[in-house]
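Sharing a chain and its predicted structure for anyone who wants a worked example. Both blocks are below, sequence first, tokens second.
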Amino acid sequence: MGQSITRVAAAQSDKELQQVTPDEEYDIVARYESTLRALPLGIGALGIVGVLLNRTFSGIAPVVDATSSQSRADVLVIVMSAVLLLTGLSWLSLKSRPIEPVEPDGVIVSYIDESLPSSVAAELSWAWEALDACTRCVALVVIYQGRCILHQGFAARNASPADVKMGPICAKAIKSGTGNYLANLVFYPGRVEFVPYLPENIQGVVVQPIGEDGVLIAATDTQRGFSRLDQAWAATIADKLDQSLSSVASPTQPAEAQT
């Protein structure tokens, strides 16, 4: 048990060092945000410099003549360039604040229903290790046939598997057969559904149905902490767990979580 807690704590430290912005790995706008914000400024400056160079080397008189088509074109270019300059300055001054992770206000638990076959228990452990290693997931809960069969990572203080219940959000995900991503859970009224067993300051959760009998709940310590790729990964894991759990009889009442 001590080794499990040490491994999870080390994984959390590694995530804090990475500080990877969600979606940055494949979203070109997020990856080159600073460059794109400065792009209008550069194009606007280039337009004004181009007009001045054209006037200098083309032999056109520097005085603006309203009857000259060249002068009218130059005025339009200067106006458009000025708009781009102002747009670039605005974009640079309104740069978004970096998203910072929070320290979950809870305890680390490691619980797997002992009544499950060893092969299923191993697959549940793999699901947690995969999400823990590859995403900003700090807690994973699996509810199957009305009972908690897995709780790994952070949990609410003094919580036990018996406190894990499916609420309206989980029930809706199962009924619709599609996942739900609450990217900013702190300001979402439905967060009360997860408070009994997850830390109160958990920033977001992904809810994925496991067939028609269960649900996978992955929690993160960062607002918008799960990218679209992470959500797809969680959905794939949920589908795999459905195949393994569908042949398992209803698990027995869970024991107290180890903390």
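Comments welcome. DSSP finds seven helices and six strands in the chain.
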